[in-house]
Amino acid sequence: MEAGLSETTDIMIKAARAGAAVAMDYFNRSTPLKMVEKAPRDYQLAADVATERAIIAVLRAHFPQAGISGEEGTGDQAGSGAMRFLIDPIDGTSNFAFRIPFFAQVITCLIDGVAEIGVILEPVRDEIFVAERGKGAFLNGRRLPSCADVAPDHAIVGVGLPIPGQVRGVDVERYFGAVRQVSDTAAVTRRLGSAALSVAYVAAGRHHACFEDGLDTLDYLASALLLRECGGIVTDFQGREQNGNGAVLASVPSLHGWMVSLFAG
Known about the structure:
alpha+beta; D-Maltodextrin-Binding Protein, domain 2
């Protein structure tokens, strides 16, 4: 258990590691990974389902009354108390499907609808990001520092490259205009393929901002808690605090105003 963090966090870490063991077993197989296209360019793998089941088994053994919502819906339950877990068994499924080694197991614990604990495990490098509301953010047990100030022309910015129909928070042309302005101004732009890790990387100082539309709370809410515990900001494209589905703009405070202005036209 991370020093000073709760037993619930410890169990969530165990659940993420159980899921990671299953995911890595699939990832390391020599045979092709069979994909089901749930929607255009939206893939589901047998690994997604098996990983989610492994995570849920650990959580349910310790919290049988808790609500559960998983991306694959393998063991969803309403629950009978204030606690609810959100699970993305493999965030970055497209990366995983094509054996690009960058994906994560993501678990968020909500109490009365508020994100209280977030766990993001990147199993290839064995990096685990953990946050508890009001207690700070950690990477592999080491506390992450507060976000540093940075100017736009020295920033590393993660950009989401959407599929058709994914952009809904702003006009599509305005979205791609923002992508171009970031590319023209920032020191470096990156597209990682995992929303959870992109936001977590802002908290870790590996990015200074990132944005993407069409996200689910399963994808990013754990990482949003992580970043907020480091003093970062997570909003929609208009600068309103974001805790639901849709457009997500995550940044260090010094960049937030500039980032929002890119979507204002």
